[in-house]
């Protein structure tokens, strides 16, 4: 009898807590509680959610402090639900189902509205995302998408963007991450340049790329895989052109200035470019979708995240 009364008090507290947070769609405490309950571990729950284990631990402590009860027993083998925690599972799952149903109804009805800030690279914005936006906007006319393509990396923790599509896996910050796929690169030159180098290679006994001109990156982009590959091939020689814009490198290759390492989905789409066989083909980068954890359950952000996920999957063959 006493346990039943205690559980009712806990359930009412949980309901009050999440009704207060519902306006901001911040259901992370319930989500993290369920993840730990289902996995029995902070680390496994964090891996499933795409956040740090310390973040999950803090949220469990916050939830327990709000309710005034211990929801888990901590041990060396993991986290085990207490009687109070066990009594909350059904209530928490009801919140989870309501959240999912709300997002699905919102997406299906096209009533999602508001501003979403997406940070990504210039080449992904121009060659992948923007061409697919007409259909997306027709489905969600009240949603205002702002795409940020600054060279500097945005900080999701400071809310400089709501979500980001990146080629580097985020390692810091309160963000949920998801690997969407991979992007392959290759070496490209204009038709005229490739034909000229083939003719010259028959007349000269030179190394494979000893006489080639290359379009490269500035020194402070030296950590890019493409920049590292070009620097190894040049062996101290000066490039024909240095630019910090991938689109400018594409334009330079089209103009016949030299060879450029480009994403295959960009290079293959250009009728005046040809792929030059090389080990640059092994340069593979991963797509990572990062969302500020507080916005994971936001319907407007989730719609954009689903759009990006589907877009990458649909284009996986050419990427």
UniProtKB/TrEMBL annotation:
Coiled-coil segments: none
Organism domain of life: Bacteria
Species per Swiss-Prot/TrEMBL record: Ahrensia kielensis
Entry keyword Transcription: yes
Key words, A-Z: DNA-binding, Transcription, Transcription regulation
Entry-linked InterPro entries: LysR-type_TF_proteobact-type, LysR_HTH_N, LysR_subst-bd, WH-like_DNA-bd_sf, WH_DNA-bd_sf
HTH lysR-type domain span: 25-82
Keyword Ion transport: no
Family: Belongs to the LysR transcriptional regulatory family.
Pfam families cross-referenced by the UniProt entry: HTH_1, LysR_substrate
Protein name as catalogued: LysR family transcriptional regulator
């Amino acid at each position: 009898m006493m346990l039943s009364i205690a559980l009712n008090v806990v359930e009412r507290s949980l309901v009050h807590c999440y009704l207060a947070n519902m306006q901001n769609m911040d259901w992370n405490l319930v989500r993290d509680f369920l993840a730990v309950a289902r996995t029995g571990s902070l680390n496994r729950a964090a891996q499933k959610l795409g956040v740090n284990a310390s973040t999950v631990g803090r949220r469990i402590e916050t939830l327990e402090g709000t309710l005034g009860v211990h929801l888990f027993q901590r041990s060396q083998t993991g986290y085990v639900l207490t009687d109070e925690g066990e009594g909350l599972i059904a209530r928490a799952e009801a919140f989870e189902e309501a959240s999912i149903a709300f997002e699905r109804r919102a997406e299906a009805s096209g009533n999602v509205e508001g501003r979403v800030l997406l940070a990504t690279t210039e080449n992904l914005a121009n060659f992948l995302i923007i061409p697919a936006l007409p259909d997306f906007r027709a489905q969600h006319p009240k949603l205002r998408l702002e795409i940020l393509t600054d060279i500097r990396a945005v900080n999701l923790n400071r809310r400089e963007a709501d979500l980001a599509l990146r080629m580097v896996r985020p390692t810091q910050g309160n963000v949920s991450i998801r690997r969407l796929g991979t992007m392959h690169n290759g070496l490209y030159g204009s038709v005229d340049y490739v034909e000229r180098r083939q003719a010259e290679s028959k007349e000269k006994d030179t190394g494979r790329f000893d006489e080639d001109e290359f379009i490269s990156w500035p020194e402070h982009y030296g950590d890019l895989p493409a920049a590292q590959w070009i620097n190894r091939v040049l062996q101290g020689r000066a490039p024909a052109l240095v630019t910090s814009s991938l689109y400018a490198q594409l334009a330079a290759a089209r103009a016949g200035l030299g060879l450029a390492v480009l994403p295959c989905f960009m290079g293959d789409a250009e009728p005046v470019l040809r792929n030059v066989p090389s080990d640059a083909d092994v340069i593979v980068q991963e797509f990572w979708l990062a969302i500020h954890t507080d916005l994971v359950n936001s319907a407007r952000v989730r719609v954009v995240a689903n759009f990006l996920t589907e877009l990458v999957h649909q284009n996986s063959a050419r990427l």
